[in-house]
Amino acid sequence: MEIVSRVVDAGIGLAAAGLAYGGCAYAALWPASQLFGRTLIAPPRPNELALTFDDGPNPRWTPQLLEILARHNIRATFFMVGKYAQTQRPLVRQMHEAGHLIGNHTWSHPNLALTSQRRIQEELSSTTAELESITGAQVRYFRPPFGARRPATLRIAREQGLIPVLWNAMTTDWSTPTPELIAASLSAKIERNRQRGNASNIVLHDGSHRTPEANRIPSIAAAEMLIEQFQKSRSFVTLDE
User: How remote is the C-alpha of 27 from its chain's centroid?
Assistant: First the structure.
């Protein structure tokens, strides 16, 4: 009986550990989770859509996207990787002057759930300093790469005056081959959010943290498809709106 009891206790211990791991993974990576701290996702305004773009600026793809946004008179939010912004200062300035909102996406796109506190501080502060030196405007919003965070990540962001932002509408636009598939997936999520009474905080990518050569034509074309689909019935806003 003692052996059986030990086996049962071990099984309970493993199950508890599994549940704890699963809970931590959910809190660290699931965009809707608020277990590690409050993040901005979307307000209860079902007729509002926020187009947000991560991993730029990219000298090839971002200008194409800017032309589309200008043609439709849409303002978007761009979460920029600091090391790319440093090499594209005129482009960043152009985006700011066009009325787009510029946000912090760290300097080098690490997983902040696994990064030391000192490096988190450096990744955020160096990116904010670079963006503010280019635009002359305060950077207020921060999106963790991969959505990965832990309590220290959110605490450090707030200590630096940054509002952590996640999302409620994203698809694998970095690997999905056609804009039609990307737009269809996002349209379904936008409709789901509307039915739940919420705005949609949409994530697409105008760059890649792995290589500036990554193809972002499907993402850019999907963005225009969404604009054409929803512009007459919804309001496109930046996150600060």
Answer: 16
